[in-house]
Amino acid sequence: MTHREHQDDDQETDLRTAPDKKREAESETALPPARPRPWRWYGAILATLIVLGGGGWWLYQQLTHVVVTDARVAADIVAMSSRVPGWVTVLEVTDGDAAQRGRVLIQIDDRESRLRVEALDAQLAGIARRREEIEARIALTDRQTQSRITAKQAAVRAAEARLAAAAAQLDLARQENDRAEKLAPSGAINRARLDQTRAALETAKQQTLSAQADLENARAALAEAEAARGELTVLRTQLAELGPEEQRLRAQKAQAELDLEDRTIVMPFDGVVDRVFVDKGEYVTPGQRLLMVHDPERVRVEANVKETDIRFFRPGKSVMITVDALPGRRFEGRVTRVGQSATSEFALLPNPNPSGNFTKITQRLPVRIAVQQDGGELKPGMMVELEARADD
């Protein structure tokens, strides 16, 4: 078949189908328009209800609740410092470790402190030995001097008795001599008798002088014995001086023990270690910060609340807390303290407005909220949001 024949056949086919196409087009235009499907209406109504419900809930929340987004978790973070100098010999913890109360965190070289304590213990032991020695000398001196004084007192009484006897003999010899001297001129007695009475009188005088001397010697010996007892006073004074010296040594020992104790840094409470600032082998100085710790069970929330909303955060008010780091979790807190001054009062550069130009800015007051938690989920520095009911 030639190309010309093919073209003729196509033209005949087009002529035959043209009326059919015309009839189909007329039939289509004669049909009624299609109706929208019902599920589209239902979807539109449901979407409208969701939007209206969400908007209503948002409006209800705005009217009945106060939300504060400028809030953070806070805690009493304790910065532990060194009171003594030395090298760090033991480092038991690192950042983030949990530690119980009393656990050793850092140990500083304590060799010199231990030697100082031992030296003071030796001095205190020497004080005790000296006290025992002086007390023994006091007891010995007391016994010796007491017996010596007793003996000298007896000697004095004996000398006094001999002196009294000698004095009596002297009186008798003087009386006999006086009678002899009176009778001698008349020849009543002979010369020999007179000489005897005179000799007896002289002898009695000498005996009296001797007895007087013996009494003085006895008294002097007694005074010497009594003076020897004065050594007891000296010994007791030395014993009393040991008291202040011992007290001074004990104070030095207590200071040395305190220095030794300060070389062991222990955990002050059950908590966690936030930051360690030293390494093992590092030399630290007094006052140098070593580490920071806090108690995870004693955290709180601190917020700066607008002055227009502060009336909804009175002490004792219950608030709900949501944490950015814990989606879906809600914590209940209670307002414990409301600041008495706005935060602007403590600004480094306060604005006294001397020029008279004024722009009213809502001020903020600090609010502290207590919150209970288990497991330390709330960590200092976390951002939180507060929600309080405005109709309470």
UniProtKB/TrEMBL annotation:
<comment type="similarity">
    <text>Belongs to the membrane fusion protein (MFP) (TC 8.A.1) family.</text>
</comment>
<dbReference type="Pfam" id="PF25990">
    <property type="entry name" value="Beta-barrel_YknX"/>
</dbReference>
<dbReference type="InterPro" id="IPR050739">
    <property type="entry name" value="MFP"/>
</dbReference>
<dbReference type="GO" id="GO:0016020">
    <property type="term" value="C:membrane"/>
</dbReference>
<keyword id="KW-0812">Transmembrane</keyword>
<feature type="coiled-coil region">
    <location>
        <begin position="117"/>
        <end position="235"/>
    </location>
</feature>
<dbReference type="Pfam" id="PF25917">
    <property type="entry name" value="BSH_RND"/>
</dbReference>
<protein>
    <submittedName>
        <fullName>Membrane fusion protein, multidrug efflux system</fullName>
    </submittedName>
</protein>
<feature type="domain" description="YknX-like beta-barrel">
    <location>
        <begin position="300"/>
        <end position="387"/>
    </location>
</feature>
<feature type="region of interest" description="Disordered">
    <location>
        <begin position="1"/>
        <end position="33"/>
    </location>
</feature>
<keyword id="KW-1133">Transmembrane helix</keyword>
<feature type="domain" description="Multidrug resistance protein MdtA-like barrel-sandwich hybrid">
    <location>
        <begin position="77"/>
        <end position="293"/>
    </location>
</feature>
<keyword id="KW-0472">Membrane</keyword>
<feature type="compositionally biased region" description="Basic and acidic residues">
    <location>
        <begin position="1"/>
        <end position="26"/>
    </location>
</feature>
<feature type="transmembrane region" description="Helical">
    <location>
        <begin position="41"/>
        <end position="60"/>
    </location>
</feature>
<dbReference type="InterPro" id="IPR058625">
    <property type="entry name" value="MdtA-like_BSH"/>
</dbReference>
<keyword id="KW-0175">Coiled coil</keyword>
<dbReference type="GO" id="GO:0055085">
    <property type="term" value="P:transmembrane transport"/>
</dbReference>
<dbReference type="InterPro" id="IPR058636">
    <property type="entry name" value="Beta-barrel_YknX"/>
</dbReference>
